[in-house]
Design goal:
The complex is a heterodimer of chains A (254) and B (293).
Chain A (H helix, E strand, L loop, with lengths): L3 E12 L2 E12 L3 E5 L6 H8 L7 E6 L2 E2 L9 E4 L13 H6 L14 H13 L15 H14 L4 E5 L7 H16 L3 E5 L12 E6 L2 E6 L25 H6 L1
Parallel strand pairs in A: 3-8, 3-9, 6-7, 7-8
Antiparallel strand pairs in A: 1-2, 1-4, 4-5, 9-10
Helix pairs in contact in A: 3-4
Chain B lengths: L1 H8 L2 H26 L5 H19 L3 H22 L3 H23 L5 H9 L7 H20 L1 H9 L1 H6 L4 H23 L4 H15 L3 H26 L3 H34 L4 H4 L3
The chains are: A alpha/beta (254), B mainly alpha (293).
Chain lengths: 254, 293
């Protein structure tokens, strides 16, 4: 059996004294591609943020590459693509400048970035299909292209584990395809992928395992639900009290 | 034109004033760009308010106000940073308390000190560039070098933290250390700018050159370089204008800077119109605009 890349044991995360994630025990092994599914508010993003050491655990453990997350220091082995509306900040930045941030964890603060870093940044931009736009202002790109910039930033560090939080939110169709193509290549090269998604969509062909969360707990862990998405799962109650705007009709049209 | 310029440069106090203005023109936007990037443009203003209490402590205790202002402003800046980090709604009110407490404490303490007159207070509130002494200038120069070493030397890291703090944390950067360093450097900058524009207008020099530069630049490094250039241009021309027009130097610099910002915006609009025509040809509408959501 390949070594555990991500392992949680009875992980619990509290927000304002209430458990938003509880008794989460799961293991992701090297070269696995795992989708984390569940409705809005089920704790997917919370789990990812806890895995990245961004949220403290109330109890249980989380480890990355066999090291408890609070003592984990080899962050260059992990590529994180957070959920963002935009990749732009308050000051203009070029695509390349944003992607370079993905190289910083590889060298100490006093060493300027060099040729190796530039090559890695170029490669990451090519991988997501933005090689031509490296010098452009991030704010001028479409939402989908900005999401690909964040993907390139994560890839620039040449990570062994890629963690993506809803990379398809608000992404145009050409970018969705580019994304899926990128992931196929990475998976082929042996990268471990943990992907948060509302639905499998274009990821379906290569996701071998799905973990479904509901109300902060794992309710399913196994082969991905069939083509009609996780909503076809027997556990799914087809009620979205927390998101009334997401009608079933909306799901069918996608 | 050359003769009046020579006349201005022949006065040692004007030479010092110009050098101080150039140093502030370089340092203020070099820190301000990071504050603007993380959408905290008014943080410099808050630090300025707190710095006034520092000045007053100096006047009251007979210490050089520059030193006490650096210490108090740095403490205030770190406090602001720690409140911001917690990210609570109540942080907003805490910041307001710190700002007004800073300015009220300053005015109160200046009044208590021997040298406390409306004159000395005005000098610190709005700057008094022509009173910069040789030793003041030396302190300003040393502090300016320290600020530039940090803002240029750590640029990739400070950029990453201010662009996407959560990502920077997940990437293993020492986010809190960098944030506190930035807060301290901002406090030092405020102190450097104190004699030039005063605590109430410090923030303008941190923000306005950056705002003007980002109208014209596409990338961060380009915005940085242009903001520092504009900072120097605004500050030095403001000093010259204030000399001939016999106006307050700090206010003149800020008015010149805002004029520069308006010009940059106008220029960007014109350029955008030219680029926009080309853009219709080679870059169609983003695909996701067409997506029915």
């Amino acid at each position: 059996m390949t070594p555990a890349v991500v392992a949680t044991d009875g992980a619990r995360v509290n927000v304002a004294g209430r458990a938003v994630l509880d008794e989460v025990t799961m293991t992701v092994r090297a070269a696995e591609v795992v989708a984390l599914l569940g409705p809005n508010g089920s704790g997917k993003s919370t789990l990812v943020r806890a895995l990245m050491g961004l949220l403290p655990l109330a109890s249980g453990t989380v480890s990355l590459f066999g090291t408890p997350v609070d003592r984990f220091r080899q962050w260059s082995r992990v590529g994180y693509v957070p959920q963002r509306v935009t990749a732009a900040g308050g000051v203009p930045a070029t695509v390349r400048e944003v992607v370079i941030s993905g190289r910083l964890s590889l060298s100490p603060w006093w060493r300027p970035l060099g040729r190796v870093d530039r090559i890695a940044v170029d490669a990451a931009l090519e991988t997501v299909g933005l090689g031509e736009r490296a010098g452009e202002s991030v704010a001028r790109l479409s939402g989908g292209q900005q999401q690909r910039v964040l993907m390139a930033r994560a890839l620039a560090g040449e990570p062994e584990l890629l963690v993506l939080d809803e990379p398809m939110a608000g992404v145009d169709l050409p970018s969705q395809d580019a994304f899926a193509q990128t992931l196929v290549g990475l998976v082929g090269a042996g990268t471990t992928v943990l992907l948060v998604a509302h639905e499998l969509g274009p990821f379906e062909p290569f996701v071998r395992r799905a973990v479904v969360l509901r109300a902060g707990r794992i309710v399913y862990d196994g082969v991905p639900p069939p083509a009609s998405g996780h909503h076809a799962h027997p556990d799914h109650d087809h009620v979205h009290p927390h998101a009334p705007y997401e009608s079933e009709a909306g799901w069918l049209t996608r | 034109m050359a003769d009046p310029m020579m006349e201005l440069l022949s006065y040692p106090f004007m030479q010092r004033a110009l050098v101080a203005a150039v140093l502030v023109g370089l340092t203020a936007p070099s820190v301000g760009i990071y504050l603007v990037q993380r959408r905290m443009a008014l943080m410099g203003d808050g630090i300025g308010h707190v710095a006034l209490t520092g000045v007053a402590v100096g006047l009251l205790t007979g210490t050089s106000p520059v030193y006490t202002a650096v210490v108090v402003a740095a403490l205030g800046a770190v406090a602001i940073e720690l409140i911001r980090e917690r990210g609570r709604t109540s942080g907003d009110v805490a910041l307001a308390l710190l700002f007004y407490g800073g300015i009220a404490g300053g005015v109160l303490l200046v009044g208590l000190s021997d040298s406390g007159s409306t004159g000395s207070l005005t000098a610190y509130l709005f700057g008094q560039l022509t009173s910069v002494s040789g030793s003041d200038l030396a302190v300003i120069a040393v502090l300016a070098v320290v600020v530039l070493l940090v803002t240029v030397g750590l640029q990739p890291r400070l950029f990453a933290v201010c662009q996407d703090e959560e990502y920077a944390r997940a990437a293993g950067l020492r986010v809190r250390a960098l944030n506190i360093l930035l807060a301290v450097v901002a406090a030092v900058t405020v102190t450097v700018a104190l004699r030039v524009v005063g605590v109430l207008l410090v923030s303008a020099l941190m923000v306005v050159p950056v705002a003007a530069a980002q109208q014209l630049a596409r990338g961060f490094r380009a915005t940085f370089a242009l903001a520092l250039t504009l900072g120097v241009v605004f500050c030095s021309s403001g000093v010259v204008v204030s000399y001939y027009a016999d106006t307050a130097s700090g206010a003149t610099i800020v008015v010149v800077a805002i004029g520069g910002f308006l010009l940059a915006t106008l220029l960007a609009t014109l350029l955008g119109r030219v680029r926009g025509h080309r853009g219709l040809v080679d870059s169609p509408q983003p695909d996701d605009l067409a997506l029915d959501r």
